[in-house]
Amino acid sequence: MEKPDRGLHHLLGIDSLTDRDIESLIERTLELSNGAPASSASVTTANLFFEPSTRTRVSFELAALRLGMRVINIELEKSSATKGESLEDTVATLAAMGVGCLVIRHPQTGRLQQLAENLHAPIRLLNAGDGQGEHPSQALLDAATLAADGLDWSQATIAIVGDIRHSRVAGSNLKLFDRLGAGRLRIAGPEEMLPDPPGIERVEVCHSIEAAVRDADVIMMLRVQRERMDRAGWPDPDQYHRRWGLNPAHLELARPGCRVMHPGPINRGMEIDGAVADSDQSLILDQVRMSVFARMAIFEWLH
Amino acid sequence: MEKPDRGLHHLLGIDSLTDRDIESLIERTLELSNGAPASSASVTTANLFFEPSTRTRVSFELAALRLGMRVINIELEKSSATKGESLEDTVATLAAMGVGCLVIRHPQTGRLQQLAENLHAPIRLLNAGDGQGEHPSQALLDAATLAADGLDWSQATIAIVGDIRHSRVAGSNLKLFDRLGAGRLRIAGPEEMLPDPPGIERVEVCHSIEAAVRDADVIMMLRVQRERMDRAGWPDPDQYHRRWGLNPAHLELARPGCRVMHPGPINRGMEIDGAVADSDQSLILDQVRMSVFARMAIFEWLH
Amino acid sequence: MEKPDRGLHHLLGIDSLTDRDIESLIERTLELSNGAPASSASVTTANLFFEPSTRTRVSFELAALRLGMRVINIELEKSSATKGESLEDTVATLAAMGVGCLVIRHPQTGRLQQLAENLHAPIRLLNAGDGQGEHPSQALLDAATLAADGLDWSQATIAIVGDIRHSRVAGSNLKLFDRLGAGRLRIAGPEEMLPDPPGIERVEVCHSIEAAVRDADVIMMLRVQRERMDRAGWPDPDQYHRRWGLNPAHLELARPGCRVMHPGPINRGMEIDGAVADSDQSLILDQVRMSVFARMAIFEWLH
């Protein structure tokens, strides 16, 4: 992959990617998924997760191992974080030890951006999710999954359904689908889960799942964060499933062959029926499969 | 190792192994322990332990690393399991990410069997202990240890002493020793720790440790689960040690050169005297040493 | 590196090192930091930390990985330690599994020494900190950092400031700096944090930070253990910072170009001002960088 000299050293979000970056990353992901040889770097990457996520951590770890990278997992309850060291000092320390890349998940929106701005060390930051901000590797793997499936972006109607307001997956995907020239972008969810205003101007806000999925080519369901369910004013699980859960009848409203996506892990019977998740129209396991290749492409691109 | 095409893709228990499988696995274990070159696969294995076990997890990890496999450890308190994802979905996800083999320990008897029956993904399951069911890799390494020690199976009297009823180690070992044609099989333990009926018909049930070890060639002591000790009707530790703990006097009752085994970790002064565990007749560290080679042989056989 | 036949098989503390050992280890650390090829052993090392320390554990892990060693991390809350197995049995088990080297941190002073005395297995022990005893790899990396910086040992005045009494870093460094022929060695700290008597006879005890740093070539600040701060009679953080924290004015009292060190993680605004930690005179990140090379040299020397 050709890599022009660029000021960018991190993957923090979608906005900082050039069109060429996006194109290269998706193209390289598809190449890797088709068995193209991967560069085998001796770079060390460290996973630094301030929120638990086996799925994402393992996906990054497998991607790094397949590239021949060394991987360090840092368990946070045991780390210097509990000794009062700042994240900035932790990053400087790992950089001094020769760690070349840090995959960070952090509960605070914008924390990665802030970290990158004050960074003096030659270490790459890879945003694996910051609060309600971005999760760019998820968006890139989702786009690669749709590209592998032959989606015609300019003709596609893509609906994202669920807690849009608090979802970094929705945040990054809407930006990326917009950049890729998706024909129509829709979001839908309970009133208190809708962003105000939506980050992308041309996004259509739908007030029922039926309106969102009608004639859609892609339906992306978001995971319900069960812990939010207890809050006042929020729907209970049964009510949520009845009003916002994706069931087979909804697929009848969509375009024939409409694809169903979900970043996982799925709550069967909550935001999605098990039968839909397991159907031929589901790309959920394709997303998982592509996740490793997309993250390999990202590691290659960072270095 | 020659590997005929077989329907079997997992190691769930002893029953599903053919005689040829058992023979090959033990033979290959001994070869590896004598320094035969190991195949170096690029398969990724993941350790998924729903019950803690450093000893077993590390043994599997070392076996995989020596074969050149990639190893992922999944920490369960941080995993999707806590996010409500089913084990079936976790396994499908790991398979989609390219994990080729899953080493699973689960507290529920039969959970691995159930998982295998519903499995659609090309991933191998390796039972590292399911509830009170099986622990087949332990049985295979124990048999290999005895084979390396030159045991004549048909002439051998083997006694297993302790909480037979709740022990998956006893469960798998009795099946395997039976299949290997052990001369006499005995079990012994407190009344409430005896299976009713014993799984293997020809097993002799003894009601004292003295009866069990008399003229024995092999005595296998089981670990006392201290947490069970608090239950009503169960013996207290001192009482247990006096009645069921293996001490040097017992070895006088056994055949000369009788071997002492224990799956570990041992409770010194509870089910076994330290002096016996450390004696020349103890194979306990031989079992540990063989554990890595047996698990290498199992990984090779699975793929 | 030439390695004469020696009775020593472990790195437990500074006293058991010969002058030639010390010289070789520092020399080899500097070679490695300058890019000399590292030997690539197939030895397996295991990290066994009974006290949490991401920094030290990661540094050892990176050193081992760069040497091509296999690394196992043993999480203690899940380990056999919680099943009542003795540390001696855990070590014998890991040795039987083929682990060649154990990096151990233990809260009990002298526990590693005790372990080594009763050890029968061919496994190397590497003391990564035992209670208030020693932390020899830290002292070796500190000495290598100063050597790389061109320190003239015989002319150097080195001051260590903080909780000397409870610090294994101070303990090992004082011994090593003494062996390396440092010109003057000073310690300073609150009365209740001073050793009585000091382990090294020629150490000068100072009763203010100003006295300690005057004309110093090297100032090593120790981390304040916040948990100790709550004890009766101990200074509160503000008071500690005012009386014992290193600030820019102190550097005016020292020799021009005086070097500032700290084993990390640092408490900014407690034992050291952020401005001092980040200044040109700070070797703190150099220590971190050198830590990986020093531990590579130690692994090579152990095997």
Account of the protein in words:
The structure is a homotrimer of 303-residue chains. The first copy, chain A, is an alpha/beta fold. Chain A has 2 domains: 19-135 and 289-302, Aspartate/ornithine carbamoyltransferase (Rossmann fold), CATH 3.40.50; 150-282, 3-Layer(aba) Sandwich (Rossmann fold). Helices cover 37% and strands 15% of the residues of chain A. Chain A is built from 11 helices and 9 strands. Chain A has a 5-stranded parallel beta sheet. In chain A, α1 (19-33) packs across α5 (136-148) and α5 (136-148) crosses α6 (168-179). The longest helix of chain A has 19 residues, at 284-302. Chain A is globular, with a radius of gyration of 19 Å. The N and C termini of chain A lie close together (11 Å). The relative contact order of chain A is 0.16. Chains in contact: A-B, A-C, B-C. The interface between A and B is medium-sized, with 24 and 24 residues.
